[in-house]
């Protein structure tokens, strides 16, 4: 619903090096389809997170943001408050502005759970989460809620995490869900991929890549080649975007 008497309602994506983004195309199309002529969506490419304060002070017509790499965690100290789920996850990908206050939410968890659930089978009992950034926290939150044990894989692991060099046949065969939360393989660097032993992947595996561009990353291509089920990040993005839209409209 469009807010009455409002001449302009601006929304946008906060990130770094985001000349191309799913969100801008998705919401621009949505606003046209809904006939919301006063609504706009733009990319706010911030070289460092401190610029967010200036953006808020200057943008009196801004109603909400999406947040992407590398600011899903770094944005938190700059916000007025967090939704309970975002606080539990420790990462924010959606911001709603209510009476001058910035409230952080996480719709990645919602989008991920809705998109992966139809693909989960009885033998999918343990997951490996590749990467430890803000997006990976939402994935771990969902698996914990669903009762699926998981292990983080990192290039710089802490005591509870594993290194990529720890991945062997036994670990891969016992972990039939692989989630790529790293940016490796994103356009234009499409030949890059997480450093895992792909020759241990089997048709029982489910490979999920949060990347949506390209549609089939090298990570997914090699999984498919081994007979595994594969999913890219496009459906997750659509679900999380719709949830963000609901949050932005909840104040009207």
Describe this structure in words.
The protein is an alpha/beta fold and 252 residues long. The protein has two domains: 9-106, 3-Layer(aba) Sandwich (Rossmann fold), CATH 3.40.50; 110-235, NAD(P)-binding Rossmann-like Domain (Rossmann fold). 31% of the residues lie in helices and 21% in strands. β7, α5 (134-146) and β8 form a beta-alpha-beta unit. 37% of the residues are buried. Mean pLDDT is 94; it is low at 1-6.
Task: Assess the beta-strand content as a share of residues.
Answer: 15-25%
The CATH class designation of the largest domain is: Alpha Beta
Report the biggest beta sheet as strand number plus sense, adding barrel if it closes. Answer: 6 strands, mixed
The residue ranges in which pLDDT falls below 50 over 5 or more consecutive positions are 1-6
The tally of strands reads 12
Measure the end-to-end span: 7 Å
Task: Write down the overall geometry.
Answer: elongated
Helicity range: 25-40%
| CATH-derived topology of the largest domain | Rossmann fold
- The multimeric state of the shown protein is single chain
Strand arrangement in the largest pleated sheet:
2-1-3-5-6-4
What Rg do the Cα atoms give?
19 Å
Q: What does the average pLDDT come to?
A: 94
Q: Count up the domains.
A: 2
Q: Architecture of the largest domain, CATH level 2? A: 3-Layer(aba) Sandwich
CATH superfamily of the largest domain: NAD(P)-binding Rossmann-like Domain
Query: How many individual helices?
Result: 8
């Amino acid at each position: 619903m469009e807010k009455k008497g409002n001449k302009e309602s601006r929304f946008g994506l906060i990130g770094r090096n985001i000349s191309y983004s799913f969100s801008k195309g998705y919401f621009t199309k949505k606003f046209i389809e809904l006939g919301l002529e006063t609504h706009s969506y733009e990319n706010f490419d911030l070289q460092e997170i401190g610029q967010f304060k200036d953006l808020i002070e200057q943008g009196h017509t801004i109603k909400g943001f999406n947040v992407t790499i590398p600011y899903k965690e770094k944005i938190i100290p700059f916000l007025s408050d967090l939704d309970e789920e975002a606080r539990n996850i420790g990462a924010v990908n959606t911001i709603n502005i209510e009476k001058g206050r910035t409230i952080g939410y996480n719709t990645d968890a919602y989008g991920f759970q809705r998109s992966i659930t139809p693909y989960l089978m009885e033998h999918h009992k343990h997951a490996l989460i590749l990467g430890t950034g803000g997006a990976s926290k939402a994935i771990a939150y969902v698996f914990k809620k669903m009762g699926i044990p998981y292990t983080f894989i990192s290039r710089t692991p802490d005591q509870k995490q594993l290194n990529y060099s720890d991945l062997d046949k036994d670990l891969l065969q016992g972990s039939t869900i692989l989630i790529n939360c790293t940016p490796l393989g994103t356009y234009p660097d499409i030949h890059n991929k997480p450093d895992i032993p792909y020759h241990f992947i089997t048709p029982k595996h489910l490979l999920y890549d949060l990347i949506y561009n390209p549609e089939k990353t090298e990570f997914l291509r090699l999984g498919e080649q081994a007979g595994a089920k594969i999913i890219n990040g496009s459906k997750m993005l659509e679900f999380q975007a719709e949830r963000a839209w609901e949050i932005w409209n909840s104040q009207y």
